[in-house]
Each structure stands twice: as C-alpha cells, then as structure tokens.
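help with this.
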Amino acid sequence: MNTAPRGLQSGDRATWFGLYYNISGAGFFLHPVGLELLVDHKALDPAHWTIRKVFFQGRYYESLAQLEDQFEAGLVNVVLVPDNGTGGSWSLKSQVPPGPAPPLQVHPEGPRFSVQGNRVVSSLWTFSFGLGAFSGPRIFDIRFQGERIAYELSLQEALAVYGGNSPSSLRSRYIDGGFGLGHFSSPLTHGVDCPYLATYMDWHFLLESQDPKTIHDAFCVFEQNQGLPLRRHHSDIHSHYFGGLAETVLVVRSVSTMLNYDYVWDMVFHPNGAIEVKFHATGYISSAFLFGAARRYGNQVGEHTLGTIHTHSAHFKVDLDAGGLENWVWAEDMAFDLTSVPWSPEHQIQRLRVTQKLLETEEQAAFPLGGTHPRYLYLASNHSNKWGHPRGYRIQMLSFAGEPLPRNSSMERAFSWGRYQLAVTQRKEGEPSSTSIYNLNDPWTPTVDFTDFINNETVAGTWWPG
C-alpha cells in the first residue's frame, strides 16, 4: 500500500510502501506485517529505482541486506503476525444468517422524474450531472420551478491526514483529487448503494488510455421519503383541522473508492427549494503495525494492528445565481437590547432584535474553520419579494471537517482551503478550482493555493462561487 506525498521536499520522488497480507475477499488494509520500504523512483528507468530505507516492526534499517544480516545474527526481534484468512470480523461477509427482508420503497404511479442523457427533469427541479475524472461529481444549470438558482455545484477535493509512529502513517496526506475521485468511482449495487427503483447511469471517460472506458452504474438518481413531514400542524383550539406535507427529496449519488475508503457523495434536492450536499465515509480504515507508543496515535483494532488517527475533509464549490447574476452577501444574527417596558417605564426588559451586516470583501466573507460565523448567512439579489425583503439563498454550514494542518507546515498551502468553513470569492475564469491534481505530488510548491483567491476584492454585487 503506497503513501503520499512522495518525499519531504519539492523535487523528491520517494514513496514509503507498507506491506500487508493479501487476503482475498476481505480488506487487506487491516493486516500489516510490519515491513515498510522507502522506494526512490526518481529515475525514469524503473531498473534504476532503489530502496533507500527499510522499516521493520519498530526499527529502521539502511537496506534489506542490513535487515537480513541482523536477522541472521539473531538481532531482530520478530513478531509473528498470523494470516487469519477471511473469516474474521474484518470480512464484509455477514456473520449471521440473513433475517427478514428489509422494507422497500415503491412508486405507486411510476417515477416522478426522468433522466434524459445527463439531464434530470422533475416537476420541481432540472439540472445536468457529470463526473470530473479527478474532481468527482458535479451538477450544472440547477433550476427550481424553471428559475436558475445555481450555475455549478461541484466537489473540488477530498483530503485525509494521518498520524502514527510508523513511516507510512506518520506522514501520509492523501489529496485524493490527484488520484482521481471520478476515475475511481465504483459501480453502484442495486438495493445496497441505491434503492432498487433508482435510475442508474453509466459514465464514459478517456484517461490513461487511447480507448474510452466505461463505469457501469456510476450514478443513480432516486426519490426518497425523509420519514419526517416537511411541515405539519394539528389544531385542537377553537377549530379542529390538520395540515401537513410529506417531504420527499430527489437524490443524485455516486461513490468514489479511494483504495480503502469508499466516499458516498449525495446531492439532495428538497421540495422547498433547498439544496443539500452530503459526504459519507465508509469502507475500511487504514492501519499500521502496532508497536511502542502506538496508542498515542489511534486505537488497537487487532492483536498487532493499530487503527491510525486521521481526519477527513472535503471541499465543494457552489456558483449561486440568487435572483440573477448580481448578488450581495449578508450576515444576520440576533442581539439583546436593554429597553424600557412601554406600558410600564419603571421596568426594563432585554428585547431580542435582528442584526444585519453587508459583507463587502473576500476577507470579510471568509470564515475560518472552528471560528465563529454568523447565525444566518445569505446571498441576496437586488430583487425583492412582495413584502420588500431581498430574494436570496441562505448558506447553512453543517460541517465536521478535521482540523487543518498548522500554517507553519511546509505542505499546508497545497490544501489551504481547509482553513475555511466557508469562503466567498469573486468569480474568475482564472480561478476555476480550489486545487490542482499536481498538489498531491508537490504540496511544497502547490500549483494552486486557494488562499491566493482571497485578496480583498469586492464581493458586493458580483458573481459568487463559494
């Protein structure tokens, strides 16, 4: 199993490879044997590649020959790691007999949406979907009841940062767009990845070959009852009535399998005009050989196996067109004012009111991860509803992203988007993406540094990608 990045500074081409038991039909990721090799692959001819360092069960060696010599001399304390086969808890095979069949959704009158090529049409929503070979799922020309509300909604990058006391785990920073979040999309299994009644679509791409390739059932589109009412009220005061509406959402899903992890990407379209992005991580954890103070860097998950500490982060871009192309960013919150009670001036009360602030520059509209941000943040147009309120879209941030690398890290600029929970920038053709596929192998001199996008330009009345 290889690691990234490929070295310790710009120009390096050296990768630590961890060796695992190759257990067929189960995740080998949980079966490290404790041997890791640092391979120098800077030469264009693989015949000239060399092993620069060897790590075996807690100790470093200059070469395989040195490890062999010390082993023959009885100086290597070898921990025997058994090959336990495919019958353990690490297997995805069910450990118990199947029970009764689970509930299924049905379309009483057939599906309420259609897929024409790469375009989805429902009674409320229309949009086009696709996959970037490196960046992953993306949606374009999103319209609600015929009115465009977003030009683009797309995944930009996924990042996993690891820690540990073995060489491969202590330095791994996987910038998955460099491997290909679309390229490594996996076929969706009917009834597991998506409902049986979902509509499934193939994806065709040209990458690393002269011939096109196809991932069958790379996308699925389906409606799903949320199990909660969108709204409801039951009245038993003065008059008796009930009103309610079940919430059914339209979902576009794809899955990227990045070696051990499976990332499930959902774009969810609600009947009230809201759009939701979800990111689920499943699959297998990454692990390392357990030795020394390993528990400082994770949890023991096997007799000789450490489940290594790590974080997950993903970055999305949305180019909103709220009521037109000219938009303003507003922050709203609440505050208490001390005021006299109008009918009893000798008494005072804390009165709650709305606060508003126009965010005019990119710096004002960039919110650091873990910092405070407005209770309500919305993008407003210069058009008003019939009560005089600007038409707009609220941006609601529900994020559990891992802590970003410290800024004094030599690699942090390669994924500096991780500093922010939300950043509003002026739309530019020269800033199409927050990252680059080349940031994976040279994070020390990144091709794209997202912080360069935030340079105090105005975001008042401008096109807006987030």
In short: The helical segments are 64-72, 167-170. DSSP finds two helices and 26 strands in the chain. The chain has a mean pLDDT of 92. The first strand starts at residue 14 and ends at 20.
